[in-house]
Amino acid sequence: YESLSVGELANKLGREPSEIIKKLFLLGVMATINQELDKDAIELICAEYDVEVEEEIRIDVTDLEIYFEDPDSDEDEAESATEAIERPPVVTIMGHVDHGKTTLLDSIRDTKVTQGEAGGITQHIGAYQIESNGKKITFLDTPGHAAFTTMRARGAKVTDLTILVVAADDGVMPQTVEAISHAKAAEVPIIVAVNKMDKPSANPDRVMQELTEHGLVPEAWGGDTIFVPISALKGEGIDQLIEMILLVAEVGELKADPKVRAKGTVIEAQLDRGRGAVATLLVQDGTLHVGDPIVVGNTYGRVRAMINDVGRRVKEVGPSAPVEITGLSNVPQAGDRFVVFKDEKTARQIGETRAGEAIQEQRTEKARVTLDNLFEQM
Ligand code: GDP
Ligand code: MG
């Protein structure tokens, strides 16, 4: 495309033209419905909706894909534009306090560190990857509940599957129920790990009974929930659990295209004294490279260095990989989305606009609070 009118762009984005005009106004551009927009303006607006303008014919929306109509290309060509291939599942572990989430995460990591990297110093970056029979799995190592609530509140979907840990000597507890409702709301499949099976007081039947009351019926009882008895402490049942994760992942047909520009979600971020803003990103599509111009939430930059989950410097990472990056101008928030742009100028422009808007929103918020206080005092 060379250019699009405001009306045409609104149509492609499934928005009202008036909304686009308002957005443009806020970006300092006065426009009418028939006004032709140049490429920069189109990219700015698309970024507002988390839509990335891809090459000449394609734009990506967070979940669905819209194609620009191109008289020269039929649907088949548009299809072949994506080369999605299998990607590793991203797994979170949830469950009641003290039921063994941390022990399980440690146990999986200890027994299944990515081959060839054993001995590498595991670095805490909020997520890690293992490999089993040539298949990778990414585990988010941030507390499952927090990850779900903050990320879901921000509209980010990062988890493909959740492991619900229930201690066999304790049974279903309040946070077990909470975890079930989080996973159900997010439509994420659940595998139950019945933990602490090594304890004499373990009563797995009770766990199954109680979970059945919450809609998780074991296969043995005619349901479709997978239950795996484990001892996270003794490392028992871990292989079976991993096997089941890979099985469920296979059914889910998880795919991503490693050839496109990377996009994904911030897992965690903080300010480091020496390195500046440091963020752990989960790449959900495409491949992220050192040097990529990137917009992350309300900040932007160029990927300066990347460190993987075993503390190694890497130059590129593909779908489902967690990686820690530096090079951002500011610290983003967990749950923020990131998108790589083809040039730094666009990334900066969009990043600065978003940062400006965030400040504006904060001000409005503050002003409102002050006004509210004022009225309360009256
Ligand atoms: P979290 O709060 O869910 O992260 O639970 P932790 O992993 O911190 O475990 C809580 C306690 O249970 C710790 O003392 C663990 O050593 C213990 N624990 C965890 N898994 C097992 C297990 O499989 N068997 C036994 N006997 N103890 C376990
Ligand atoms: Mg813990």
Automatic annotation (TrEMBL):
Residues spanning the signal sequence: none
Residue span(s) of domain Tr-type G: 86-255
Domain of life: Bacteria
Residues binding GTP: 95-102, 141-145, 195-198
Location of the protein in the cell: Cytoplasm
Region described as G-domain: 89-237
Protein family per UniProt: Belongs to the TRAFAC class translation factor GTPase superfamily. Classic translation factor GTPase family. IF-2 subfamily.
Role summary: One of the essential components for the initiation of protein synthesis. Protects formylmethionyl-tRNA from spontaneous hydrolysis and promotes its binding to the 30S ribosomal subunits. Also involved in the hydrolysis of GTP during the formation of the 70S ribosomal complex.
Official protein name in the record: Translation initiation factor IF-2
